[in-house]
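Job type: complex structure
Entries:
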Amino acid sequence: MESLEWKNKGKLFTVYDKNIFVIDEGKSNETLVILHGYPTSSYDYYKVLPELSKHFRVIIHDHLGFGFSDKPIEYSYSLIEQADVALQLWKQLGLTKVTLLAHDYGTSIATEILARHNKQQIDLQINNLIISNGSMHIELSKLRIIQKLLRNKVTGKWVAKLTNYPIYKKNIRNVYFDKSKITNNELQEMWFQLEHNNGRKVIHFLSNYINERYTFWHRWIGALKETKIPTKIVWAKNDPVAVDIIADVLAIEIPNNDLFWIDNCGHFPMLEKPNEWVQLVLNKKTTY
Amino acid sequence: MEASINTDGFVTSKEWKEKGTLISVNNKNIFTIDTGGNHKNCLVILHGYLTSSYDYYKVLPELSKHYRVIIQDFIGFGFSDKLENKYLTIIDQTDYLIQLWENLELNNITVLAHDYGALIAKELLARENSGITNLDIDKVIFCNGSMPIDHTFFLDTTDTKKNNVSKNLVAMLNSFGVYKKTMKNFFYDENNITDDELKVLWKLLEYNNGRDIINFTSNYIRERKIFWNRWISALNETDIPVKLIWSKEDPLAEESIVKLITDKLTNNKTYWVENCGHYPMLESPEKLIECILSE
């Protein structure tokens, strides 16, 4: 699917004076809210949206700094603020009961939301939590060289300037299990969205989240350990970044969880193995 | 320079402890002094780093004539619960604080924030601005709270700043002798803090595990960077009146920070405390009270 076609599916909402791009599809009474990963966008879900929206009203927004949302320069881009934005957006949409699904970068936003949920600071009722390939246990993850460079004070800005489509393409390809599963067209669309609204100027700011995963380790892992929300872990086994051991650890820590593996699949299971991934997300429907 | 410190009112840590109670908030005990009384306005004091509510022992009697004064020891400090080898962030401290206010049913709140407490006050403003909380804050008073003047977006991955701070703290907390010497350096006139007072401060520090406190430090140094834009915007966007009370000879929170803060604010007033270091509540208590109470 082309970026512009995707863009036409969504709408811009004003949240805290910033434009946030939001996909809102499906007519079910049950709502699924999705927090996408880094450095991509809601577009990651274009293959699975048709099926998901048969079962849920699906809300996916581009985080601030990503995709078709605003990319302000003077902004913290903290995961704490991404949580503020998500919660405010959902409030504006009138959502009260949701299933929360998070991938990659989005999983840390989800843990911040859980921390607030555990302390009863928010009114939102979260019926179920679904976590897919995110390096919440940053100490166990295998960061790509590009991630290390981007989060570094000295190299970050320059790497961001020098990053170009071939480098991007190579990095995304490398986190796939089967590199033929992502097409050049898809990669071009992803790159287009990254570049949209001068996105390359903020990409190194966004990379700061890796440091936050250390700073807020106890808050966020603590939130997972305390949550009472039924949780499903859907994990692609061959992710070179968010490695399988992270899922094993999460399955031990989270009180009420089920772990499902997707074999022969890399970091973007919703793109690489969309059918399998959707089935796992939707299965055990009775528990919803 | 005349030393106007009245040592007659000296309070031991035991006496101080008896002034407060432990209040359970999200399963942590928070040592809280609540002077109560029939006052319309509350003054909530957010104390500084490494010290505790005890910093305010000289000013509390007078302030409690004008306000219902609440001072709590932040978790990890003073008589509040220990850290249990966990990083506790400014974000966490703010959560606990808001919950404590709810338990105490505080209204008409004036916040007085010093040092580390100023970071928590900025986080409170950020949440108020975005409607995440709806607290009844009438005014915020910032007092000698340090923050980086220039913002570089990146956390130093080698964490030089953090390591330096940690290194200095390890050294400082090595023995009472070194602690005493370091603390005296934060005063304009080192005679303005007595050995008895320093012994209490040291005792309160020892009450918790020093090693945890150092880990803790590295974390808030990181947060000052992560949230620089968030907290500057919080000042920029707030419509709550802000007062700054700043002692001029503070080696930790330089004068230039005042300009950084006031440039962002529409409704503010600055009061300077002359010949005074990082702890005006201990070094120039009368002057501090005068500045707090003046309209």
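Summary: The beta strands of chain B are 21-25, 28-34, 42-46, 68-72, 109-114, 137-143, 242-247, 268-273. Chain B has twelve helices and eight strands.
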